[in-house]
């Protein structure tokens, strides 16, 4: 699980050879009441992170006990590509642990330092992915309540996983939940006041995370908690661009909106927050590579994928090869051999065969689906020519075969629905011409 809620500066002690059913490889780090180990699960043949609690779980009022109960209640319930999965939990009075997905990278804490800041474009990507993860969690009835850079793990690049739901509010939980939780610098005004919290409190905390990742400084600094809380409740934060050059006014506006004092003045939902980030991340997109957020938003909007869960859309994001093409570029040519499926995500393209125009493809339409459905290396029966600047996602047969079974089934259903629509349209044209 990388370094979430783990302090690497605490010297590890010699770890045991085995904890419960897990083989211990090494200690990853320590917290105030926990030690985290990299362990091997012999049954599933995989590495996982095991957080072992050092304190007595008999105290019903214990904060640590509440954290354990929170995380144990979420075993197997958070399945999202940008959330570190909680896999197992166990307590027998002498040993208490939570098993989590192992993320080999570090946390974002290392990238929140003034001399180690990420490129602005990568911060935007990370923010976009956090929005998706926290929206998914909220739809499961969960408010994180302790979002901060050390609780966001980096798998590689901008691929992140939100972790540490020990302080979360979980709707319908059977155990008593903590109220006074969170990290002061990342706490929303309503969290400081002790008000009931909604997802908008997490929106505020993500705003602070973005601010810190962009500038290396927190929006509010003070010598003690009382002074800090007063600033959070009463003062306006300086815009991020005042602390780092190159930050666009549009990005300033997004971060400051997330940091609004009143929850109602923040984004009304995670989708609008994510789309705002995707939009500002797409400024000048014609001259840049295609970001994950652009890929996701383009696929998410397609009728072809309307039945897909967020995680399944992310599977396709990673499976495809994406290209920006100038007008008059040939995407495929008649007679070419191939099994790839293509989706036009921007622009228009003409379909021709033997020099005759057969159709015009628009955003969201696919081509090459017959070769994919047949699974055969067959010659293309038409040429597809971009008539405007276009963006195309290409999915090779092997990449699609590696998708999860639910994802493949939904894709085939979507393609069959698309083919049926085309057949209906063709029949209508034929009937009008006779």
Number of domains: 3
Straight-line distance between termini? 66 Å
Tally of alpha and pi helices: 12
Approximately what portion of the residues adopt beta-strand conformation? Answer: 15-25%
Fraction of helical residues: 25-40%
Largest sheet: 6 strands, antiparallel
Low-confidence stretches: 1-12
Number of strands: 20
Fourth-tier CATH superfamily name of the largest domain: Transferase(Phosphotransferase) domain 1
Helical/strand content category: alpha+beta
On the 0 to 100 scale, the average pLDDT is 87
Major sheet strand order: 1-2-3-4-6-5
Describe it.
The chain is of the alpha+beta class and 434 residues long. The chain folds into three domains: 18-101, Phosphorylase Kinase, domain 1 (2-Layer Sandwich), CATH 3.30.200.20; 108-284, Transferase(Phosphotransferase) domain 1 (Transferase(Phosphotransferase), domain 1), CATH 1.10.510; 296-433, Jelly Rolls (Sandwich). Helices cover 33% and strands 21% of the residues. Helix 2 runs antiparallel to helix 7, helix 6 runs antiparallel to helix 7 and helix 8 packs across helix 9 (310-319). It is globular, with a radius of gyration of 25 Å. The termini are far apart.
Short description:
The protein is α+β, with helices and mostly antiparallel strands and 434 residues long.
Task: Please supply descriptive tags for the structure shown above.
Transferase(Phosphotransferase), domain 1; disordered N terminus; Phosphorylase Kinase, domain 1; six-stranded antiparallel β-sheet; alpha+beta; Jelly Rolls; 3 domains; 20 strands; four-stranded antiparallel β-sheet; 434 residues; 12 helices
